[in-house]
Recover the amino acids of this structure.
């Protein structure tokens, strides 16, 4: 009901394989995504459907994302099922001029009539926030991919 959908495309000098390695290096995410304090993958290992990425933000807020689809090194889909909303983030990684192009699409959908009304009333304010959040996270992941590509 009343979903908000935003798409961002970013580029990096890192190859798709390095971008994928950055996705899998969840414990390193706080080094390049400034809003994160701690992140872990349950169970540890590769990103596979059913895995969970559990994070704590700098404000102490907890986030639990479930891996819905994982097609290394080209596609990752994460989902959040919250009491008030559902979120889905899709990352598509494509080779591009010796590096990669990352297209990230975020979809936020309200659950229930109360949240739907809130989304409707706040849509103009929520859309730029969603866009900025997706861009910041994607840029942080690409920065990590570049570090990995350079041996760091």
């Amino acid at each position: 009901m009343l979903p908000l959908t935003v798409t961002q495309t970013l580029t990096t000098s890192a190859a798709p394989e390095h971008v994928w390695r950055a996705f899998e290096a969840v414990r390193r995410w706080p080094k390049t995504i400034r809003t994160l304090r701690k992140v872990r993958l349950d169970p540890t290992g590769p990103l596979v459907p059913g895995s969970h990425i559990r994070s704590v933000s700098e404000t102490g807020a907890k986030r639990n994302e479930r891996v819905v689809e994982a097609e290394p090194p080209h596609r990752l889909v994460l989902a959040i099922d919250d009491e008030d909303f559902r979120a889905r983030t899709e990352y598509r990684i494509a080779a591009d001029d010796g590096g990669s192009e990352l297209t990230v699409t975020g979809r936020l959908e309200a659950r229930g009539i109360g949240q739907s009304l809130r989304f409707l009333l706040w849509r103009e304010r929520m859309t730029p926030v969603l866009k900025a959040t997706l861009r910041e996270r994607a840029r942080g992941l690409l920065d990590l991919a570049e570090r990995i590509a350079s041996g760091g």
